[in-house]
Amino acid sequence: MRSSVGSHLTNAVAAGCLSRNYGRTFCSVVEGGESSSCPKAEDKTDQGEKFERTSKAEPYDIAIVGGGMVGMAFACALSRNPMTKHLTVAIIDNNPALGFKTSFKRSEIPDPRVSTVTPATISFFRDIGAWEYVLQQRHAYFDKMQVWDYTGLGYTRYNARDVGKECLGCVVENKVLHYSLLSSFQSGAELQWALYPARLSSMTVPSPRSVSSRIMSQLEDSPSGRFVKLDLSDGNTLHARLVVGADGSKSNVREMAALKSTQRSYSQSAIICTVEHAVENDCAWQRFLPSGPIALLPVGDRFSNVVWSMRPEEASAHKSMDGDDLAKAINRAMDDGHGPQPGSGVLGGYVERISSFTSWWGPSSSAAEPFRAPPRVTAVASERMVFPLSLMHAHDYVTRRVALVGDAAHTVHPLAGQGVNMGFGDASALAKVIAEGVSVGTDLGELTLLKRYEKERKAGNATMMAILDGFQKAFAVDAGPLNLLRAAAFHGAQYIPPLKRNIISYASGDQKWPLFS
Amino acid sequence: MALRWCLRGLALGRAIGSSSSRLQLQQSTNNALFSARSLPQALQWWRSRADAPLPPSSPLPLIHLPPPDESKHRGSAEGDPLTFSAFSSSVDEVEVAKFAAIADTWWDSDGPFKPLHSMNPTRLSFIRSALCRHFGRDPNCAKPLEGLKIVDVGCGGGILSEPLARMGAVVTGIDAVEKNIKIANLHAELDPVTSSIEYRCATAEKMAEEQQTFDAVISLEVIEHVSDPAGFCKSLGDLAVPDGAIVISTINRTIRSYAVTIVAAEYILGWLPKGTHQWSSFVTPEELVLIMQRASISVQEMAGFVYNPLTGEWSLSDDTSVNYVACGIKRNP
């Protein structure tokens, strides 16, 4: 079986060196316009035949456009599943990091672009064999979280022990996540893949006309007339049975496949930077201010990551601020300024006294925990980055032969750290659906198969996005009754253990729907 | 007698009557399997009187077929689907015409073949697990049917043949309707993986006469459209190597199947063109087992397909009251 597949693929696009060793080595990157230097491919080439790039090429099973975190997670998931590990995959991304030529350089100061991975994502990473690589680099588990707002009327402290877990999440730099996925992919078993370091310039999706009318109108100029044709910026052309768009919020694939989306930009930008403390930080802090939330996430080694959403002009002002001024501004935002600290006294003491009666609700160690002030920032350690925030949701995640995952399908406000976790969930679900399709011999680009992926992910993603959007709106308004409502919500989450457990397990990805799960 | 009255009442819903008697069970004295001995006889009586005229608003075009003439060959010796006159066949010309009329829509997953498309993954998962069990293959790999020679009898547009080819099998698809074979060929040519499927316009009898044998013979949703189910099943058995697998799926003949496949699917929901199915030609599991036993096939597994209208999904179950499938092994006779 292996040799037949191998010789089939010898006639693949351009010097399309696909790994036929099925082992650790991959043949090479497909160079633009030249036969690439892969001696093994040349040995097996049909003797003397110079294959043309564009015609009669054996189509790839899957073309992943975008080799970022979600795209590579999807590729890893395919390579680990016994059903899908023999598929042929093309990865289209001109990021040089995907060339596997450089080893990872651990930086002294953590990069400001970090993500909080939920326990559900951690177990996905374990399944695809990437978590072990993350553990070798800098990462920070945290088991406590405190959320409050500027009014000082209420706060909520979450603890992983409320749901009997060890951690609420882990904060990892994006480049560490990406590198771990690349390492896992490269060491993964038998997936035959080729990397195209180029950008997608155009894509032709076959139209759903019936077979006979298509034949009669003689659209078939090549046997692959039924597949998606991808034209790349370096002149290569390839065909694929299924195109997976993992190319981010400004997805080309989404545009070219004419998938509509609803987009609304928050009139906010987020400024991110790495800061230093005098003491170790082991808790995630988030305070909602009138102009937007500020989050302080532990990154390890006494560093923390600040994600501060505010109006765009304020964000650029803060970006160009002096380091000390910025540190002071962050401390004001987290603790000193904007309003009083929530008092934990009265209600907390009352709850502690009646806790013996309410213990039937289940354990809640953090209900009695008092409010704590976050650790002070001593210095801003890294460069500052600003990016605009918007909400985007694609109306359909799939169409014939095209599927979207990750930010290409949805973008959210960073206030709950869910964005990339939703993307990893998409990658995992799509890989599972494709494995089910392969097990019964389905054509991978068939719409009914892809609709199953959409059905599994779209509703859950839309619900999460609605909740996050609701939070963003609820905290953006400073009005007396709404402030009290928010305070009541904080108190409810703090002192009602079932509600707190529900919130934690929903945010951790262990629960698909927010209520009644 | 009340039973006969009930059956006659149900016959009022039929669009096109079939004239010939279908199951030659009267001659059989081994009716021990049947719980009601009078049932098959009642059915015979009823069918012989039930040549209902075509309703005026039949959606299917009336193709006037010349009756099969035993003495003449018409058209090319091989390919003409209407002249199986040189050998006995179980092809029913009216049924052939029905399918020829809608052949263009085979691969339109919202067309008249939508139920087949939506049922397909479930059928394939049963076939995969049954064949893996039978041939001792590992069900956890992508091509579990590697190297098996499979014939898809009544392949239609190739809805079943293509996934089987993707699972690694060497597939031959045969169908009595020429147009279907053309459509199937065109569609299979579009993908390199499926272009290895061999399609032929032939019947099971013809293939059996040519002494062709296969590791697995699969005939799904066909036996309720043939005029001689027992003969058809015998031909299927002849096509299999000894200890080969035979998989047959069809629709049970129960009140529930009438309500679901004829009343609901054809008249209410409009999923299938009216007249696609004849309730009298449905085969009960007991009858199917008997027919298969007569063809030296011992039935090993049977399962039902149920449709959940809320989720729109098909699944395997023990409920064989509407759609069901049986897998058997060809024994040496």
From TrEMBL, chain A:
The keyword Membrane applies. It is a peripheral membrane protein. It catalyses: a 4-hydroxy-3-(all-trans-polyprenyl)benzoate + 2 reduced [2Fe-2S]-[ferredoxin] + O2 + 2 H(+) = a 3,4-dihydroxy-5-(all-trans-polyprenyl)benzoate + 2 oxidized [2Fe-2S]-[ferredoxin] + H2O; a 2-methoxy-6-(all-trans-polyprenyl)phenol + 2 reduced [2Fe-2S]-[ferredoxin] + O2 + 2 H(+) = a 2-methoxy-6-(all-trans-polyprenyl)benzene-1,4-diol + 2 oxidized [2Fe-2S]-[ferredoxin] + H2O. GO terms for molecular function: 2-methoxy-6-polyprenolphenol 4-hydroxylase activity; 4-hydroxy-3-all-trans-polyprenylbenzoate oxygenase activity; FAD binding; oxidoreductase activity, acting on paired donors, with incorporation or reduction of molecular oxygen, reduced flavin or flavoprotein as one donor, and incorporation of one atom of oxygen. The keyword Ubl conjugation does not apply. Its EC number is 1.14.15.45, 1.14.15.46. PANTHER family: UBIQUINONE BIOSYNTHESIS MONOOXYGENASE COQ6, MITOCHONDRIAL. This is Ubiquinone biosynthesis monooxygenase COQ6, mitochondrial.
TrEMBL record, chain B:
Residues 57-79 are annotated as: Disordered. One of its GO terms (molecular function) is metal ion binding. GO terms for biological process: methylation. It catalyses: a 3,4-dihydroxy-5-(all-trans-polyprenyl)benzoate + S-adenosyl-L-methionine = a 4-hydroxy-3-methoxy-5-(all-trans-polyprenyl)benzoate + S-adenosyl-L-homocysteine + H(+); a 3-demethylubiquinol + S-adenosyl-L-methionine = a ubiquinol + S-adenosyl-L-homocysteine + H(+); a 3-demethylubiquinone + S-adenosyl-L-methionine = a ubiquinone + S-adenosyl-L-homocysteine. Its EC number is 2.1.1.64, 2.1.1.-, 2.1.1.114. S-adenosyl-L-methionine binds at residues 123, 154, 175, 220. It comes from the Eukaryota. It is a peripheral membrane protein. Keywords: Magnesium, Membrane, Metal-binding, Methyltransferase, Mitochondrion, Mitochondrion inner membrane, S-adenosyl-L-methionine, Transferase, Ubiquinone biosynthesis. HAMAP family: UbiG (MF_00472). O-methyltransferase required for two non-consecutive steps during ubiquinone biosynthesis. Catalyzes the 2 O-methylation of 3,4-dihydroxy-5-(all-trans-polyprenyl)benzoic acid into 4-hydroxy-3-methoxy-5-(all-trans-polyprenyl)benzoic acid. Also catalyzes the last step of ubiquinone biosynthesis by mediating methylation of 3-demethylubiquinone into ubiquinone. Also able to mediate the methylation of 3-demethylubiquinol into ubiquinol. NCBIfam families: UbiG (TIGR01983). This is Ubiquinone biosynthesis O-methyltransferase, mitochondrial. It comes from Spirodela intermedia (Intermediate duckweed).
